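Following up on my earlier message about magnesium ion. Here are the inputs again, as you asked, copied directly from the submission form:
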Amino acid sequence: MSLLELDGVKVHFPVKKGLFFDRTVGHVYAVDGVSLSVESGQTYGLVGESGCGKTTLGRAVLRLNDITEGGVVFDGTDLAKLPSEEMRAFRRRLQMVFQDPLGSLNPRQNIESILAEGMAAHGIGKDAAERRKKIEDILAKVGLPSNAMSRYPHEFSGGQRQRIGIARALVLEPDVIICDEPVSALDVSVQAQVINLLEELQESLGLTYLVIAHDLAVVRHISDVIGVMYLGGLVEEAPSDALYAGPRHPYTKALMSAVPVPDPEVEDRRERILLHGDLPSPANPPTGCRFHTRCPWVQETKCATERPPLLDTGDGHKVACHFTAEIEAGTVKQTLATGIEAVIGTETVAAEAVETAEGEAESPAKVPGQGDAPVAVPAKDGAQDQGVPGGS
Ligand SMILES: Nc1ncnc2c1ncn2[C@@H]1O[C@H](COP(=O)(O)OP(=O)(O)OP(=O)(O)O)[C@@H](O)[C@H]1O
Ligand code: SF4
Ligand SMILES: [Mg+2]
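Thanks, got it. Here's what our run produced:
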């Protein structure tokens, strides 16, 4: 059994209306039936466009959001069904690192106090002296000097603050850390250092990660398995290498085609799939395959009426599309105004836009990873963000 197993998790937020009596007039289907497994000591990378439900899913695992339906089985216990008092014991073992390190650290507390607070609440360390010793050890592990303890969050750089966020999780000796966009707020060079740090800590402490990001380049280096989310559901899941070598779902193909390739020759020749339109509202998701309103391969049958399940297409590569095999074999053709560009040399040749059923082709939307530089992972001794401003 995997350390963490999600089984058909749904998180629906009620939409209320009315001045005196709150009436539920609809729901935001933020997470709508996600099943995935995270193996002990491994990293599961969850990617997808802004608003597709990644954070909601991460928060649901920790029961910070109510789970509408489904199971979250951690180490054999279904957290979704656990009374809140019993959930407390599990909270320590499942920690979260947030995107915005400054916003998640109390500006009026020094680092020692921030880190000791959680330890005291969970009964870690018998007294302040023992907690202080542990905090010193963890600060050293995350690459911060021990004098950081008496300083305040605003005295640190963005990368250092994220190290503090990681230290805050680590002092509680967790088994699983959910990293929600752990490097999105950081410069690219610092991003790589924080990713390296997470990898080193995983190796030395045997941690299990669920890493959430909108940028495929960020999760690529760190993930064993990657799940691609679209509008509340997983559309593809595969071991990291297999996903990058051959994405099979049309949405993943579009995401991958937007990630720049370091080889200039390949970069010049690669085909980019630019998706049309915005992500539909999760309060009113499309019927059938949720991607059918933007899918370049949408077919007349099934796509708009039947939601495709996530099925194993071989070697643990799972895809939720009715036409995976046909698209792979080239026996179904693209149907929707494509927005596909073949970039040849320095010339960009836009493929002729096929008229959509409605008429005009819309302008292509930005997809995750597009325009984002790939994360260059430097030598692990990089220490650009390690000095404490104003002293050492
Ligand atoms: N408490 C809430 N009440 C109502 N709707 C919510 C709530 N929290 C999130 N949502 C909605 O659920 C959807 C998914 O939000 P979520 O924050 O999980 O997306 P995300 O994939 O993490 O996006 P991002 O990449 O921008 O962080 C969004 O439409 C959001 O507006
Ligand atoms: S099921 Fe249809 S709309 Fe959905 S991804 Fe496959 S081809 Fe596209
Ligand atoms: Mg989010």
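One observation from looking it over: The CA atoms of residues 130 and 190 lie 32 Å apart. Hope that helps, and feel free to reply on this thread.
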